[in-house]
Automatic annotation (TrEMBL):
Keywords: Signal. Residues 1-20 form the signal peptide. InterPro entries: GDSL (IPR001087), GLIP1-5/GLL25 (IPR044552), SGNH_hydro_sf (IPR036514). The keyword Protein transport does not apply. It comes from Tulasnella calospora MUT 4182. Pfam families: Lipase_GDSL (PF00657). GO terms for molecular function: hydrolase activity, acting on ester bonds. This is Carbohydrate esterase family 16 protein.
Length: 360
């Protein structure tokens, strides 16, 4: 049977009081009509198969292939604001933010066998530059079927700009991203004939929401409820047009990032309380929401726990330590706020295991 999985990733990146653009994504994957028959191969066997070149390249020792800058599009760095933003807590640190993740434009070239992400040229752009991140590996290496990705992730995204203002007004929030999905892909156009069963929607959002607000006055726990209500109102919209498979990724422990650590332990401890509170509420929200709908499959990936494990024992994961950053392949951070492609590789591996046997 030929199977085509189209994945829609609406990601939002976080960026916040620190810079960060993790891709917080919303992925919706659709399986549609496959461009060609898939080779017969049991899913289990596929999982045991030797890793494809990309994966091998990412495994320690990490040897990431870097793509040359595309002259037609500015590199992510070119989009970084050069004006420092005062850090809300210390007022001493500038926040430069991030870049558009992946750089996908739904109005441009659609995903196809030539590029399952559609555009830009693989691997697109990330907060670490033109390198792979977890979704790249999920779609082209750990995939159990042929998958097309609609990745709406956007660097610096918050759930709703009216709730948490992004670092710059042009950032597409998760609300914008879901609306782009609903407008373009939701109606199941000929280029994306997705169905409820052949699609998965993933959401990796919240870093910038908490990063840009945890220090504010007021009841932070109540505000996390407000954020999650907005979050799940969007999830409900995706459900309303047929989404049934949902992958949620919580907020990694960016309170342990080099940038946050430079703010001092009292600052990181204060952020951690709000961040952990959001993650606890996210898990409960997923359970509560699932009880109100039917036919839904949900998965929650605990990126916070995995990053914590890596930072607790970096050398056992192939990293020299938990605090250095740069482009070297043995570093856990590519800059002072974003985890490296090497850490993304571990995220991808975990997500692969969580989705094992699902066809995604
Ligand atoms: C996984 O994706 C790659 C890249 O699109 C594709 O070549 C490969 O056939 C896919 N694997 C399966 C099992 O469909």
């Amino acid at each position: 049977m030929v199977r085509l999985v189209t994945l829609l990733t609406a990601a939002a990146c976080l960026l916040g009081s620190a810079r960060a653009c993790y891709e917080q994504c919303t992925i919706s994957a659709f399986q549609g009509v496959p461009p060609r028959p898939l080779p017969k191969r049991p899913a289990l066997q596929a999982r045991r198969a030797p890793p494809p070149p990309l994966l091998r390249a990412l495994q320690p020792p990490l040897q990431l292939k870097r793509r040359a800058p595309r002259p037609s599009r500015p590199l992510p760095q070119a989009r970084l604001p050069r004006h420092p933003l005062a850090h809300p807590v210390t007022g001493s640190r500038s926040v430069t933010l991030t870049l558009k993740l992946q750089g996908f434009d739904i109005t441009s070239t659609k995903p196809s066998s030539a590029n399952v992400f559609g555009n830009p040229a693989y691997p697109g752009y990330t907060a670490c530059g033109s390198v792979t991140n977890w979704i790249d590996e999920m779609i082209v290496s750990y995939n159990e079927s042929y998958i097309y990705s609609y990745n709406f992730a956007y660097g610096g995204a918050t759930i709703d700009a009216a709730l948490v203002t992004p670092y710059t007004s042009t950032v597409k929030s998760m609300t914008d991203q879901v609306n782009d999905f609903l407008t373009n892909v939701g109606p199941k156009p000929s280029y994306a004939p997705w169905t409820s069963s052949n699609s998965i929607f993933s959401f990796f959002i919240g870093i910038n929401d908490i990063g840009n607000s945890w220090y504010q006055s007021g009841d932070r726990a109540a505000f996390s409820d407000t954020l999650l209500n907005a979050y799940f109102a969007l999830v409900q919209k995706v459900y309303a047009v047929g989404g049934r498979n949902f992958l949620f990724i919580n907020i990694p422990c960016v309170d342990r990032s080099p940038y946050m650590k430079s703010q001092g332990s009292s600052t990181t401890a204060a952020e951690k309380i709000v961040l952990d509170g959001f993650n606890t509420k996210l898990a409960a929200k997923i359970t509560a929401w699932k009880a109100t709908v039917s036919g839904v499959n949900t998965w929650l990936y605990d990126s916070n726990k995995k990053l914590g494990q890596i930072l607790d024992a970096p050398t056992s994961y192939g990293f020299q330590d938990g605090t250095s950053y740069g482009s070297a392949t043995n570093l856990a951070w590519c800059n002072d706020y974003h985890v490296s492609p090497g850490v993304h590789h571990y995220f991808a591996t975990d997500v692969k295991n969580i989705l094992a046997g699902t066809g995604f």
